[in-house]
Amino acid sequence: MLSERGCKIAPRTFYAWQARPPSKRVLWDMTVAEILAGYYTPDADGRRKPESLYGAAKMWAHLQRRGIPVAKCTVERLMRANGWQGVRRVKKVRTTVADPAAQRAPDLVDRTFAVDAPNRLLVADFTYVRLVTGVFVYTAFVVDAYAGRILGWACSTTKHSWFVESALRQAAALRAREGHPLAGSTIHHSDAGSQYTSVHCGETIMLAGMKPSIGTVGDAYDNALAETIIGLYKTEAIRKDSPFPTGPLRSVHDVEHLTADWVHWFGYAGDFRRVCCCPAGRARMLWAGGCRVRALPGSPSWRWRSSAGA
Q: Does a structural domain hold residue 244?
C-alpha cells in the first residue's frame, strides 16, 4: 500500500516499525491520561471530582503535590487532546449598593493585598446565589489576605447587615479558638456597600478587634482579593455543572450545605495560585511551622497592585 502511494520504504522496515513496542513517552502519556480521566470522567451518579474544575496550570500543580513528576506541557497537551478544560467565569449581578448618606472608614489598604503573616488583613464581601424558585440567597465571606483562607461565611435570604456581621464574628471566633486572636492592628477591608458602612457592622468590626477600611464606590479593584474568592465560589461551587451541588438549590439550607463543602475543599484541597497553588489551610500550617509563603507574580496581590498605578 505504501509503495502504491509513492512511499519508498523497505518491507522489513515497515514490519520492524509495526512490531516495535510503544515508546516510553507513549506509555507515560497513557498513564497520565488515565489519571486525568479519573478527575474529568463522571461517576455512576453523573458527578465529577472537584479537581475537574481545574485548568491545565492548577491540574499540573495538583499532580506535582501528589508526587507525579509530569511536565506542565504534557498536562496541557493531554487535556487539549481529550477535550478536558477548567471552568470559566461568567458575568455577575450587582449586589453592592452604597449608602450615600453613610460615613465611611478610610481606605487603609490602597490595593496592597500582600501581607507577610495571617491576621494582618481580612477582606470581606458577599454575593448572590439564585435558587430554582428565582429567589436570591446571599453569601458573605471573610478572607485572610495572607493565603486566601476563608475564616467566616454566612448565608441569608435578605441583604441586611446581620449576615455579614455573622461572618465577621465567625472569623474572630475561629482565630481565637486557634490561639491567634485578632489584634487591634488587624484591618478589616470591604467595599462601600451599605451593609459594611452601617453602624452595627462598624461596632462588630471594632468589638472583634479590627480596624475598618473601605474602598471607593464602584471600583472592584479596591476589594480585588475578596472579588477573586467570590468569583471562584460562583465558578467552582454554584454552576450547574459543578461537582458540589447534590441536587437543585431549593432553599437557603441547600446553599449552606453546598458552601460548607466548598469552603472545606477550598481550604484544604483546592489549589490557589496566590500561594504557589497551595491550599490556603496548608499555607497557614506552613506559616505556623515557620515556613513562609508569598504571592506569586501574576497572582492577585501582584496584578492588582500594578493596576493601581503605584
A: yes
- Tell me the pLDDT tens digit for each residue of 208-240: 889 999 887 666 667 888 998 999 999 989 988
Tell me the mean pLDDT in the region 153-176. Answer: 94
Pairing status of strand 149-156 against strand 136-144 = antiparallel
Residue 255's identity, in one-letter code, is: V
Residue ranges making up the domain that contains 147: 121-307
Cα(241)–Cα(42) distance, rounded to whole angstroms?
Answer: 11
Same domain, 138 and 269: yes
Looking at the structure, tell me whether residues 36 and 172 fall in a common domain. Answer: no
Residue 259 located in a structural domain: yes
| CATH number, domain containing residue 261 | 3.30.420.10
Q: Is 0.90 topped by the overall pTM?
A: no
